[in-house]
Predict the 3D structure of the following.
Amino acid sequence: MKKIIFICILLHYSLFVFAQDDTQLFAPTTQVGSRNFEIQLFNNLYTQTQFANQEGMRINQGLRSTFFTTSLNALYGIRNNLSIGVDVLFKSTKLGDESSSVWDVFSFMNDVNARTAVSGLGLRAKYNFSPKFAVQQTIYFPTAMDLDGSQSTRPFLEFQGYQSFTQFFYNKSISSTFSFFGELDLLYRIPSNFRLQNSSLSTPLKLFLSIYPISKTTLYTLAELSPTYGTNIQLIESYYYQQGIGLKYQVSQLFEVETLYTKFLVGKNSGLGNTFNVGLKIRK
């Protein structure tokens, strides 16, 4: 279950695609611009009743694990190609029997089967090399104690430690109807006690293909493979592969809404669940 946290963080950073004309304003490789800002509110709901074990076999875990993550992030342009910002993470988890509702997580309880907290604060910088390529760096700091439940009987909510998240964005217009977007990430986690033998590195690779059926609307598909390495860089401790389909609609030149569904198909030491996502973005 501890591998599920990658899903919540990584999914928050993977939900970007492109549409032609004004919709390009919302692409990750687009410059925020000097003295301009970008604000995004993103909600991710992940639920599972099965997981992949060490051998990659699908196992019924005998209960339902549900995680809800809301992230609020803001970027401000200090130069045309350089922006800085913050990211606040709010998380909730709920354990129940297999027949329990995924909506039970919205009770936001704190007991032996549930946990809710503001789990992290991120400091971010983004540099745009060109309209096609950009790099973003975020450092996350934990804002609560015992997030992983290792010191209590409470369920796992979040990795207890510091996280360095580096993202490389690339987009390419294929035609007036299609475009391609790729993202390669480096996610390095260090425990709060700084025991490096318990640190890990993940290298998620995400690929998107977008189509523009009508004005202001983008349909897209997602494929992501994310391996996680332990202290021995040659050893893949876990991985997951997910696919999904999403829709984005540009309400105006300043406002965009997005929805996405994904399913985790295969993995190793990772959850095999589904996600339901809704995002809002404002640029000014």
